Amino acid sequence: MIDLHIHTTASDGQYSPTELIQKAASKKITTLAITDHDTIAGLEEGKLAAKQEGINFVPGVELNIQHFGGEFHLLGLGFTSISDSLKEVLTDLQKNRENRNVIMVEKIKSLGIEASLEELMADNPNTILGRPHFAAYLQKKGVVKTRQQAFDRFLAKGRPCYVERVGANLDQAIIAIQESGGAPVIAHPMSLFMSWGKLPDFLQNIYERGVIGLEAFHPGARVTECLRLDELAKKIGFFITAGSDFHGEKIRADRKIGYTCGKKKIEDSIYENGLLKWQQAQV
Questions:
Q1: 183 and 212 in contact (C-beta within 8 Å)?
Q2: pLDDT number for residue 68
Q3: Which of 23, 152, 155, 192 could form a cystine bridge with 70, CB 3.0-4.6 A?
Q4: What is the rounded distance in angstroms from the CA atom of residue 171 to the CA atom of residue 192?
Q5: Count of CB atoms within 10 A of residue 176's CB?
């Protein structure tokens, strides 16, 4: 089995890079990509742990892209180095997150709930903060009983503490990934919340701009949708990837390392016929 979309404590995952790699090894994963949100802080530790466990390690990232509508996330997979342009994109995204966090704390306090950004940061050291951390914080404070309740009452879009994220420019993100030797891949396209009538033209456009891979198989989509994405992607020319988008059992108990939509194992062929084949063609 393989998995090309996993998160660690460097962003909003439950496990440190080393713990994640060890867990993946116990599940017989042969190839794994760490793709934390807007940070590459966990890659070096993950690479060392993967070497010890005999796992083929794929350095990656998941970038938030500015998009009106749903969520547009761009994976960068298979970095050979980290370019200055990627560092710049990440710095800007992290600053945008920091500004957003300040506003979210103020919104929470305006509801009469005691909140402190310093306390939140102390609870999550060396981490890129996001809404899941706020949800855990509200649960810790006893404001809600579950993290999902925190989203439903306060943090989801349209709720009183939601603040829109400012994403990266798509073309700059594509160049940054390319200059780092990586492949730009659109993550979970169903999160775009785009109709099937509009999706083909949108995907064709981003393909022509340099996005060359598409995560057709993701546990957040139905199997029929994933198969339809697979067919559409191949018609356009994308290579296919698949991932679990695993964050940890305490965060998303329904997602398992090495498994994607329909609780199906992610076969080695997804990697061998996709990212690996592309990487070999670059040599």
A1: yes
A2: 82
A3: 192
A4: 17
A5: 26
